[in-house]
Protein 1
Amino acid sequence: MGKAPITIKGNQNGLRVYLTEEVEFVQILESLRDKLKSSGDFFAGANVSVQLGKRELSWMELSSLVSELEQAGLEVRVGGSEAKRSTPRTRPLEETKESTRLVKGTLRSGQRVNFDGNVVVLGDVNPGAEVVATGDIIVLGACRGVCHAGSKGDIKSSVLALRLKPTQLRIGDYIARSPDHEIHDSGVPEVARMKNKTVVIEAYTS
Amino acid sequence: MEGMVLVITSGKGGVGKTTTVANIGAALATMGKRVVLLDADIGLRNLDVVMGLENRIVYDIVNVMENKELAVRKALIKDKRVETLFLLPAAQTRDKDAIKPEQMKRLCDELRQEFDYVLIDCPAGIEQGFRNAIAGADSALIVTTPEVSAVRDADRIIGLLEAEGLMEPRLILNRLRPDMVKRGDMMDIEDVLDILHVDLIGVVPDDEAIIISANRGEPIAYDRNSRAGQAYRNIAQRLEGEEVPFQSFENPGFFKRLRQLVGIEI
């Protein structure tokens, strides 16, 4: 029998719950439940802080701990983590070196924008209209026309629209056409990019 | 007070421009306005036929342009029924290259001195005929039917008009069939406005009576019993600045949606 999974210590500032290292979380939770049950109302209304030590807890694990404590009537603070930060490594902010043209208004049938750089349209791109950009294309409206991103060959380019319903999409040298039957409007912003030589459309998440 | 020069255009052929010009003109004239209808479709003139005035043509618009001695007044044909309605017919034996935009502009400026409204019947297409027709206009009315190809062409035309400085054209949706819209077989008003982004000034329902009236040369706006006629009369009133609720085409939801769209209080 090793060390107790959790230890509860008290001082004038309140309680501290220490989580023992190298003990499985399941045991920690069980041990906590037992302790809380056996104490009845003893801890109710008390301030408690959970000391994580070198332990890293997932969000789910932390939530279950906190809710156990709160159910027992405790006010919880979480502190004292000495765990090495293991947040996912954030990529450095990508800044494009190209310029971006802002088109204010809707592009009507027969109108064409051809730009060396990125293009942002504050409006719709109507069927019969074309946007050609060497970089990315963003349509803050409905894209119902033809958009060609990465027109000089950059297949990492993308086309984003609040409503992506183009007649044709082109990225680099690749062409994708909308299906012949009417597609249901997904109602969410979507972005089109190349993945393994196919144009893939996904919901846009920032 | 100078009159207003309106060009009625569409891009697509056969959607109802000529019928619209004839009927709005008739309705405005019936309201007491002095109206001249100008047929800019040189080579394929129809406005005279629809008005029932083709056997009264002596001089046409090309004669007026080419002959400095010929006063416009001599070429104008008075309507059979209403005193204040006149027609300046197009030439049938020439084509659209016979006149230039500057000439049209001068003609429109001359006519607006005498008339409250100059309504120009624009030919289909986007070439010289179109350019001539819009040259003298203050604003435009776009006619479209609720069909994908017509809306596509209307969009193109609106883009060209905006490029020429004719901003904020207003839309007439022609040949609407509420039964087909209900079945989902026809675009509804919102679908059209979603693409075109312009203000709606009128909705004309599909009506057999229009074909009959056009063949007879009697604009349907004179027919008190016709829904289509009423639609054209409503458009005329709205042009005059009156607020007219849109007709309910047997569909209460339709009426409500229109009201919401246009923000009109009854």
Note: Chain A has a mean pLDDT of 83.
Protein 2
Amino acid sequence: MFDYHALAPELIVGGTLMAALLADLVLPEERKYLVGVVGIVGLVAALFPLLTLGFCEDLGFCSGATERVMFGGSYVVDDFALVMKGLFLVTGVISILMSVGYIESERYYQGEFYWLIVASVTGAVVMASSRDLITVFIGLELVSGPAFLLAGWRKGDVRSNEAALKFFLIGVLSAAILLFGMSLVYGLTGEITFEGIRAASATLADEPAFVMGVIFVLVGFGFKISAVPFHFWAPDTYQGAPTPVAAYLSVGSKAAGFVGLLTVCYLAFSEVASIWGPALWLLAALSMTIGNLTALKQTNIVRLLGFSSVAHAGFVLVPFAMAASYDAEGLQSAFFASITYLLVYAFMNLGAFAVVIAVAAKTGSAELDDWAGLSRYAPVPAVLLAVFFFSLAGIPPLAGWFAKLVMFRAVLGGTGAWGAALAVIAAVNAVIALAYYARVVKTAFMDPVPATVPLADAGAPIAPALVLALGVTAAVVVVAGFYPPILSFFGDAARALAFGG
Amino acid sequence: MTQYFQDYITVAVFAAFGVLLVLIAVGASALLRPKNPTPAKSASYECGMDPVGGGWSQTQVRFYIYGLLFLIFDVEAVFIFPWAVRLEQLGGFALVEMAIFIAILLGGLAYAVRKGVLRWES
């Protein structure tokens, strides 16, 4: 019989999908936001089984191992999976909160919009537990499929169409590359589960076809996490897509790609770390440097955040790039650093996008020039803008500094010149990043207000749902910055994966 | 070279022979036959009607939705047949599972009906 407790989050999210679909059918046009409410309630409800699973022993539900293996090792619910599922569910909730006011003004297919976000989150939740190639692939496609539609939501807008088309073509290309790599790996090892691949791959490190398979899998995930040189779709897609969707793509969809990449590298390819270690080193160095240098030149805030998310993908990869040269303890610390960075990044980036939505409602655009003197007529959004952008830059006492700290600690924990070189590159990039984040804040606080802004209705209050999204993300960023043990608790839980395999 | 790649040699040899066979048959007849083309000979002979109009024709876009709906219930049938054959052994649990599966699909049909995709006019 199945372990329904372990599958409860997926079952609840699946039930939420049906409920949202049916709610969309019966609700009149002016009440469609209730579909979003159904989605939020469902996603929040799915958080509770995560808690009962995570503190299973303390609550007295079960005894012994917290790790639950199902479907012949294809689906594993361990602490790592629980933490990531929690992240995806919270990301989904915040994305829906950000969308409510934004989508209502568009006046079409609102119900489907919320439904598609929940569907995409379902895929991400499945990915966190997947421990075989096919389940990972299905999860990844379930994340991407709805996201293609969401990116092209404003169908009258040429940019939105461009965003959806680019995202779709790149998504299909990366899926094809990923599948090709997986088919090579399967052909040579004869195994689908990560555990089986790991056992069979020890003798294959010198086999050219296997090396190619591993590299192709990395490239496929590289597109999903928009690491340089597979990043070029990301800024265009973020700029054209509706801003809440861009926020979801840059956090939920990207984190799903990271989960896939980390579990595949760590669990399936751990015997052949000499193949993916140098490749990830290169991806990390290029992503940070090119992402940050290009962001310096951006004049549109959403595009700037797009390139900044490329750079942050590089930072997340930094600890893991050196994993090949680590001993067991170093590997744990690398895993801890990557997961912690991902958690922090999720909240500060969602917050930054929420600020963009709030401010764009007052200035009418996301161009940096129109944001000049924001603090004169919209002090609260301006302060929040400073909070999230300085957090992204890694300035204490906001959460971003802790992410950068654990990242540097992990990469310097290893030995050898390559680790030191990567640390230097990361440090230089942290400084470059500060330049463009600070420039936005300086424009908002110090430059004179241009004649064209603010809009006539700039005095209107921010949508309540958006206020809630801003409040939650700001609270996490500030509290976690002052009291990092909150985050290290989750990071530590996720690190348990290091011993799972 | 591993066994993995050696298996592909068989495929390559097979493909090469296939191409060779066609080349020999067509090439030999081209070399041996007399060449004396006339318009009557070049016309399509006993191969159906002479084609009229272009190769592209437009189809109502609504058939796409019908195609999608058909596909969904086609897949449902694929699942139901083996399930029906083994139902006695699988027991009541399988019955409940199939009921849930069909209920989910009916949700899709209800969505299609409510959104008016099955109405031809409008």
Note: Chain A has a mean pLDDT of 87.
Protein 3
Amino acid sequence: MMQDMAKFRGYRRAEPGTQPNHLQPAYVSSIKRAPAKPLVYLPHTLSETTGPSFNSSAIDAKASDLTRQGQGEPLGERIIVSGRVLDEDSRSVALTLIEIWQANAAGRYRHNGDQHNAPLDPNFEGSGHTLTDEHGNFRFMTIRPGAYPWRNHYNAWRPAHIHFSVLGPAFATRLITQMYFPGDALLPFDPIFNCTGDEKARNRLISLFDWETTVCEQALGYRFDIVLSGRDSTPWEK
Amino acid sequence: MSLQATTSQTVGPYFQIGLSRFYIDDLTGPGIFGDVIEIVGRVFDGDGQPVPDGVIEIWQADAAGKYVHPEFLQESENIQATDGQAEEQRRGQSAFRGFGRVSTQADGSFRFKTIKPGRVAAPDGTLQAPHIAVSVFARGLLRRLVTRIYFPDEESNVEDFALKLVEAGRRHTLIAKKLSDGRLEWNVVLQGAEETIFFEC
């Protein structure tokens, strides 16, 4: 190999408490799905420091506006969700694929498995994607999703959220998360939001209301920055 | 003061809406060099029940052991075709993207058609055995699970950087089995006695 392995650097690992444990008994679905055996620590190799990417030809430019996917306007409160994808050293993550999906304003997903008796919206599919720009910035126009009930426990309701999937620069940085809204009364009761022990880390999943990106007479702005693992500062030692 | 990586959350049960646009179950295509393989498998939970709402993503090198990624770009530019076959191989590899994504079916099953990857370097200077990096997402998984697919009848498995980190009695969970029809079978057991090896990545 021409690669100089003495200089090989992996990606940093999470600080304790800043990522959820796999088993979260309060989140019932984790009980039979979380691994029971300890994970095996894998020093990163080229298989983990490289990763997939898509170029702009794969992207539908209209897919970042979730309010323009039907014949008419979807019902609900129009919002603009924007932010920046960066790494732990504040470096921009440029040209990476972001995919989002969400319930409609009534709290219903356009999915056969969602049997909640709230109405579907013929003008809302609930999915979008985009590439970050060269500075890591992204912007979606959508509607504010509704809360919805689920069967985790009696009278369980998910707080309003938008699912985010980010490829990042490497296999090691792959992230799927959820964005929440400030002031949501359901947040303290949600076992998924609360699965992260570190309160500050948990609260970074809550977007910020943002006047800067709010468009007069059009849509409220929310800001959600996404931080991916940074590069190890010290090379791999033999 | 550095930032901290955003905390992971489950993909949930309705990911199909958001992730299906980039489902890729066939990584082969015209001009892609290498041995075509088909990998089939199922995902099971701790009760042995199929997981019908999982997402499997794969990432792999091409047949020559190269990743389509900027960290390989400089190296690739240095490769000079020495003869026609090498040139064909070089052009063919550029068409290989290395990424696949599928959801599991009602019976927990999934399949990929791809090419067998070549060997890539480990940080200790050795060559890793051919392998495919795998991410597993599902309702109930708050973080993705990371694992690998290795190949049966592969002599280099015994000297592989990552397999050596795994206790001998569980290594078989990472190695696909060859079926009588030539396909490779590789299952994911999320929990239990036959639990698949998952890596802290």
Note: Residues 84-94 of chain B form the longest helix (11 residues).
